[in-house]
Queue: 3 jobs
Job 1
Amino acid sequence: MSNLERDPHEIVCTADGEAETELLTGRAVPLGGPRAMSVTRTLPHIRRRMIGAWCFVDSYGPEPATMRVPPHPHTGLQTVSWLVEGEVLHRDSVGSLQAVRPGQLNLMTAGRGISHSEESAEGGTLHGVQLWVALPERHRGVEPAFEHHAELPVLEGPGYRAAVLMGGPSPATAYTPLIGMQVSVDGRAELPVSPGFEHGLLLLDGEVTQLPAGPLLYLPPGRGRIVLEGRGRVLLIGGEPFAEEIVMWWNFLGRTHDEIAAFRKEWMEGPGFGTVTGFDGDPLPAPELPGTRLRPWGRVRPYQAPR
């Protein structure tokens, strides 16, 4: 999925401190023009830019909607497509053509550069999440690739059943220590987690006592279990705090202003991101860069007392 904001802000992330448990309230972002599908973006947040290597969380539905995201580029990240309801068709510049359905995983590794499109049937019900994972410096120049996993491993315990998207026993390629799961809760569940990971929890449907509908709940490192009570489905993401600085602007992840500017120029003028075939429409033009140089932001934005 693309970031279709016409005036995207740059985001640079550093491991510069931790916070207590906090609710990250999302903001509505339209994917396209006046009749665009709307998503709720809870990450990056004004306070917290990442959870482990997870750097972007868009959720949508359930509602009748049409996803139509024209060909657009990515660098330095992986896109993770997960549906609770509906179907989305993925095309990319390495030749992939793959629908993703509930319980299946589409994972695209942009590496040094890739382009892709996403679309769904007109007016069908859509409910799901789109996530990005930042690639560390040593891997961010890997060759672009695509994976589809129709079946995923399942972990079970008292009160829960969890499909593992990434990390742990998942076959999906990961470049940093992380975890991503859809957890079905039925009663009281105690999920074992890594104390070295920070985590985020997003309620997908149902009612779970600890999670209000909408915000992403951030949990700092240091716990060996997460307790949930109720009946519903929850997205759980986590990972080791990401220790590198990352500039994120539009659909690019880089390290400097000049690198981001070069990515944009290549998308607008050059062939470096390949061609998406089969999409009925033009590629998505990149927004204009801001008038000032993209500057560093902390991984956790420092608190500033109101004046």
Note: Residues 11-239 form a domain with the Jelly Rolls fold (CATH 2.60.120.10).
Job 2
Amino acid sequence: MAAAWFNHLVDSSEAQAISAGTQPDDHVHPEVVNSMSEIGIDLSGATPRKLTEELARGATLLVTMGCGESSPSISGLRTDDWPVENPNGKPLETVRAIRDEVQERVLALVKEDGLKLKSSQ
């Protein structure tokens, strides 16, 4: 959700987010796809990826979601943990609340880092 929100909101010439996990499933959970589609972000074709040092190379920030997974340590990378509830298997109403919390966290990060929002935001 965080990477999708970030890429939806932030001018791609400023920065881009990549989504990856320490123990990714083979699909994005349907409740996440549904809640994000409600606000116009299509994750139906997204494929979860494993977080590797190679994938993180070139990144400036690693945001972990605190969903019960172990947090990786990648040398030299600024990290921030967002203790967000894991949406997997939760009712849509709960997933919507998680989605909205993630959006607020992304917007705070964008403001903190002085990034430009897309002109339509």
Note: DSSP finds four helices and two strands in the chain.
Job 3
Amino acid sequence: MGLFSFIKDAGAKIFGGKTSAEEAAEAAANKEAAIKAANAKAAAGLSETINDLDLKVENLNISITGDTATVTGRAYDQSTKEKVVLVVGNSAGIAVVDDQMEVENTEPEAQFHTVESGDSLSKIAKKFYGNAMKYPVIFEANKPMLTDPDKIYPGQVLRIPHIEG
């Protein structure tokens, strides 16, 4: 006779239960459901934060897939729209924001700046406006997400609004 080799986890189970393929499929479905639930919870948290910051967007909807957040709704103005994008984008786990919002009252779009190590609002103001003393413009443009002009961090994205002269 001799020994015969088999793959121990393959095939039908003789004592009931599911095959390894069925178990794997069930585990994958459970993982997918857990990811969807976590993404829905994160999206709800972002919506609540946007509401708490008093950023007015009609029919705000945020959906997350992987590291991409899609934002829809109608913002009161361009500033509000950009702040919503920043709230969502400056959140852990989000690498891309697909901005599909509409704007009720149009105005010039701001530029965006990703904070680097060693940056300060005055250094950023000098770069964009040619005057370091214009840092309060950047600070005000990023309220209420910023609460202190000295509390910015590398990787954070800031709004740099257009100003005249």
Note: The chain is about 35% helix and 20% strand.
